Amino acid sequence: MVGVFQVYRRLVTAVNDIEKRIPFSHHDRLGFLTFCPSNLGTTVRASVHIKVPKLAANRSKLEEVAGKFNLQVRGTRGEHTEAEGGVYDISNKRRMGLTEYDAVKEMNDGIAELIKIESSL
């Protein structure tokens, strides 16, 4: 988990530089507008690839636990794929109603909890 917020700071700097040249579409209520409605709001989907074999032994249990921390479980290569070698792509589920920083923090904190749960099994 070390480095997630360093990457976030680099991303913010890059996005701010781009936005100086190319304005992004933004709606006061919906946030940033994209081609994918699920990304309305901050548009931030922060994810990590993680191997959680004990939790993953029961995919529905993994999804249930992840849901408690507002996390979304995907296969290794993203949406509509299966996990390869027990590695899942886990990301923040929420993008509306919170800041970009809070979206990344929620993902980071949720992953830390998944690791604790995995270690306790």
TrEMBL record:
It comes from the Eukaryota. Residues 1-121 form the Phosphagen kinase C-terminal domain. ATP binds at residues 45-49, 74-79. It is an enzyme of class 2 (transferase). One of its GO terms (molecular function) is creatine kinase activity. Gene3D superfamilies: Glutamine synthetase/guanido kinase, catalytic domain (3.30.590.10). It comes from Timema monikensis. Its EC number is 2.7.3.3. One of its GO terms (biological process) is phosphocreatine biosynthetic process. This is arginine kinase. Pfam families: ATP-gua_Ptrans. Belongs to the ATP:guanido phosphotransferase family. One of its GO terms (cellular component) is extracellular space. InterPro entries: ATP-guanido_PTrfase, ATP-guanido_PTrfase_AS, ATP-guanido_PTrfase_cat, Gln_synth/guanido_kin_cat_dom. Keywords: ATP-binding, Kinase, Nucleotide-binding, Transferase.
